[in-house]
Amino acid sequence: MKKTYIFIIVVVVLMFINTSSSLVNTIIYSLAIIPLAILLGDQTTRISDYIGQKKGGLLAATVGNVPELMMGIWSIKYGMIPLVQASLIGSIINNMLLGLGIAVVFGGFKFKEQSFNSIIARTNFNMLLLAMSSMVVIATLNRYSVVLSTVLISISVKVAFLLIGVYILGLVFSLYTHNNLFVVSENNEEEKITIKKSKIIINKNVIESTITLICISLLLYFISDKLIYNIREFIKSYNISQEFIGIILIPFLGNIGENVSTIMSAMKNKVDMSLETAIGSSIQISLFVTPVLVIFSCFMGLNMTLLFPVFHIIMCGIAVGMSFLVFQDGKTYWLEGSILITSYIIITLAYYYIV
Question: The whole model's pTM is what?
Answer without folding.
Answer: 0.82
